[in-house]
Design goal:
Layout lengths: L4 E2 L10 E2 L19 H17 L4 H22 L4 H8 L7 H8 L1 E5 L12 E8 L2 E8 L5 H6 L7 H16 L4 E7 L6 H5 L2 H14 L4 E10 H5 L6 E5 L3 E3 L3 H8 L6 H8 L3 H6 L5 E3 L10 H20 L3 H13 L10
Parallel strand pairs: 5-6, 6-7, 7-8, 7-9, 8-10
Antiparallel strand pairs: 1-2, 3-4, 4-5
Helix pairs in contact: 1-2, 3-11, 6-8, 10-11
């Protein structure tokens, strides 16, 4: 059981505090269940009921629990083995899924959060700072969502303003100045589309980040841990290596938004998700991403410690590979990587 990381602007200098961990035998009855998980939910409800009897010394309950747990695991494996792109989108948005601060807390050491863009204000929707990965000094940043109503409002639901991207830009330049490898964690529905954000140059801030990241003379590794939405994701996603957690998504627009534009009907999100190819498997085939990080059965929110371990192993390996290259080779390879994406054909004359 991991302890979900959360943050408060008035909290201690480490940038986050821990919520109380759930007790070992505490009920899972209030887990957030997705619609397609309902068959598993019914079985786990029965398991909870039997555990109540088991606590009274009923020996037979233990045998029944073991059978039901095996059945639930098999059913979960069957369901998650054939998820549709839209169902994967729902898993990527799961409210119990680990967020950026959870990954930082459980994979990095000595994290020191840095605030502000030195121009307007600090944007809590993007967090970042210096840390160590297996003892190696690095720069780490990503979008951060909230878990309760107060945190969601404080974090603007993980949708950064221009000052958030300018804060990320400041950290990119700081990393280059001190030769620190950069790790980014992508988890956003998209950049905030409000009037204030547009007035302060949202599109310019994103475009500047794309330009600067493409030329940054230090290794960059980006990982999509939840939603990778539009330019809001790409603004911290121009990297030497782009990873995706198995049940995350990466797309120019949400399936619901795409359906609303194409068919004037948001309920056709299933069709849109298939057309957009939002899931990690499809994006790996097309060469948009470099690696899919396997998640525990049922998603990273079910066994976060396993997800942290898998991703950390991948990041450590990629860091060793990239630090072996000189700055010129890094920049050139990054340029070629993104230039080679897509298929182009010259029109016949």
């Amino acid at each position: 059981m991991y302890v979900a990381a959360t943050s408060d602007k008035d909290n201690a200098a480490d940038g986050f505090f821990q919520q109380p961990a759930k007790k070992e035998n505490q009920s899972d009855m209030y887990r957030h269940w997705l619609e397609f998980e309902k068959p598993v939910e019914e079985i786990e409800k029965k398991i909870e009921e039997l555990r109540t009897y088991e606590a009274t010394g009923n020996v037979r309950s233990s045998e029944d629990i073991a059978k039901l747990e095996k059945k639930a695991k098999g059913l979960l494996k069957e369901i998650y083995g054939k998820l549709t792109p839209q169902q994967i989108t729902l898993v990527a948005r799961h409210p119990e899924r680990p967020y950026t601060l959870d990954y930082i807390q459980n994979m990095f050491e000595e994290f020191m959060e840095l605030h502000g863009d030195r121009a307007f204000r600090d944007d809590p929707a993007i967090i970042g700072g210096m840390a160590k990965l297996d003892g190696v000094p690095v720069m780490v940043m990503g979008q951060q969502k909230g878990r309760n109503t107060k945190e969601k409002v404080h974090r603007n639901f993980g949708m950064p303003h221009p000052e958030g991207y300018r804060k990320a830009l400041r950290l990119f330049e700081l990393a280059e100045r001190f030769s620190l490898p950069v790790f980014t964690f992508i988890d956003t529905p998209g950049a905030y589309p409000g009037i204030g954000a547009e007035e302060r140059g949202q599109s310019e801030a994103i475009a500047t980040n794309l330009m600067v990241m493409s030329r940054l003379r230090v290794p960059i590794v980006a990982t999509v841990i939840g939603e990778g939405g539009s330019g809001g994701a790409l603004a911290i996603g121009v990297a030497d290596r782009v990873n995706m957690m198995e049940f995350s998504t990466y797309s120019v627009i949400s399936p619901e938004g795409c359906a609303a534009i194409l068919w004037k009907d948001g309920s056709k999100a299933d069709l849109a998700a298939k057309a957009l190819k939002v899931d990690a498997g499809e994006l790996l085939k097309m060469g948009i991403i470099d690696k899919v990080i396997k998640e525990p059965l049922g998603g990273a929110h079910r066994e976060p410690a396993t997800a942290f371990k898998s991703l950390k192993a991948a990041l450590v390996s990629e860091l060793a590979e990239l630090t072996a290259l000189d700055a010129e080779s890094l920049v050139e390879a990054r340029y070629r990587k993104f230039r080679n994406m897509g298929v182009f054909a010259e029109p016949k004359r």
